[in-house]
Amino acid sequence: MEQLQNKVAELLEKGTISLMIGFQTGLCNDPVPCFIESASQISQLIYNSHCKHNLAVYLHKPEVKQAKKVGIFGNIATLRSILQLLSENQLWDLELTIITINASQELIVFDSIASVEQYIQTNFPELTDEEKELIEKINAMSRQERWTYWKDLFSTCIKCYACRAVCPMCYCTQCTVECNQPQWIKVSSETSGNFEWHTMRAMHLAGRCINCGECGRICPVGIPVHLLTAKMNLDIKKEFGARSGISSSNGYALNTFNPNDKDGFIK
Amino acid sequence: MSQFEPKIVAFVCNWCTYAGADLAGTSRAKYASNVRIIRFPCTGRIDFMLLMKAFQNGTDGIIVSGCHPNDCHYTSGNFHARRRWMVFRSLIDFMGFDTERITFSWVSAAEGAKWADLVNEVTEKVRALGPFTEFKNIDYNSFNQLDNGAIAK
């Protein structure tokens, strides 16, 4: 921790960064994001195994864009988001300094994006056992059961769009859900509109989602929305061999094609 | 009671399937009149939200059809669409939608007979499945459930 604080102090002093996005201790000792602009704030900076939130979502905020020279503490989810965002050409206006602490508690300041890619290659996260189990459980259900399962969950959705706000990949300035001519998705939180919203969200993230699971974690009514994109990622990996967030130049699965893609389901 | 007549919406591409359907017409092929054809510039334009909207507005079955692979007027529209449909299909299947009600197909401008067969086949299949009320009635049903729950308490 001290190592991290010293490094950030050094970077701030040298002017390599003018803003550091990291973690501080919040309520009940939970880590919450913090934004460090001067040496006096550095003692807030912490790191522990609970620092799992995806900080890449802040890289779209105008306040952060203004700072221009931004340092970011990157756990695996954040690093993958950054790579995916780079491949979508979203971070061109930032000079990023990416810092991480690896499994053996060593501080790493990445000197290039290529070294981030390399780091991800060797530390690629798989789905958690809990997520795998849930997906298998849902897969094993009959169609009717799946429908009821999701219907019951989606009927509780209050359309707060927290899943959108927390997602680093949801960076459109105008979302389809706010489009009212035509009105694609019902404004009120009726179950049918909720179905449409979650289908749309998942489809727009297909092959781009990096499985950080923030959307499911943030949901105030506890809908495991991250399973939808996780399931699609599994399928995309299986069918197209594509993975999101491993390279800064790959694009994403639905943006490209292979003439030999399987089409057994098409008559 | 009269037989259930399903409503089928066909999202087709302008260059192949629409021309194919036209050929079916000019060759006087007879096929089920349940289908409502909507013409698009390319299958690449057929957004999944259009399918969702069709279901919500009361269609019982959907046909999505375009040029065969390598025949796309815009070179790669159908290749992109194919990937999207594949992902979409697996997603809605995971969510419990009845994927039997969506039929994807390649019909070229020369395949008027294939188009007529396809429409007949899909109409029969959807007729056997019955009206698609799951999605249409979902708000009504969930409202009723809530209401009954409140009364029971």
Total DSSP E strands of chain B: 4
Q: Proportion of β residues of chain A? A: 5-15%
Largest interface: A-B, 44 and 37 residues
Strand arrangement across the biggest beta sheet of chain B:
2-1-3-4
Query: How many H/I helical runs of chain B?
Result: 5
Going by CATH, the architecture of chain B would be: 3-Layer(aba) Sandwich
| Secondary structure category of chain A | alpha/beta
- Terminus-to-terminus distance of chain B: 40 Å
Give a quick account of the main beta sheet of chain B: strands, pairing sense, barrel closure: 4 strands, parallel
Helix content of chain B: 40-55%
Number of helices of chain A: 10
Ranges of chain B with pLDDT <50 over ≥5 residues?
none
CATH topology of chain B: Rossmann fold
Count all strands of chain A and give the number: 5
What can you tell me about this protein's structure?
- The complex is a heterodimer of chains A (267) and B (153).
- The N and C termini of chain A lie far apart (59 Å).
- Chain A contains 10 helices and 5 strands, in the order αββαβαββααααααα.
- In chain A, 39% of the residues lie in helices and 10% in strands.
- Chain A is of the alpha/beta class and 267 residues long.
- The mean pLDDT of chain A is 90.
- In chain A, helix 3 packs across helix 4 (113-122).
- Chain A has 2 domains: 2-122, no CATH class; 129-255, no CATH class.
- Chain A is globular, with a radius of gyration of 20 Å.
- Chain A has a 5-stranded mixed sheet.
- Chain A has helices at 2-14, 62-67, 76-87, 113-122, 129-140, 143-154, 162-165, 191-204, 214-218, 226-240, and strands spanning 19-25, 31-36, 69-73, 95-101, 107-109.
- Chain B has helices at residues 17-26, 48-56, 77-94, 112-129, 138-152, and strands spanning 8-13, 35-40, 61-66, 102-106.
- In chain B, helix 1 packs across helix 4 (112-129).
- By secondary structure, chain B is an alpha/beta fold.
- Chain B is built from 5 helices and 4 strands, in the order E-H-E-H-E-H-E-H-H.
- Chain B has a single domain, classed as Rossmann fold, CATH 3.40.50.
- The N and C termini of chain B lie far apart (40 Å).
- In chain B, helix 1 links the parallel strand 1 and strand 2.
- The longest helix of chain B has 18 residues, at 77-94.
- At the A-B interface, helix 6, helix 8 and helix 10 of A face helix 2, helix 3, strand 4 and helix 5 of B.
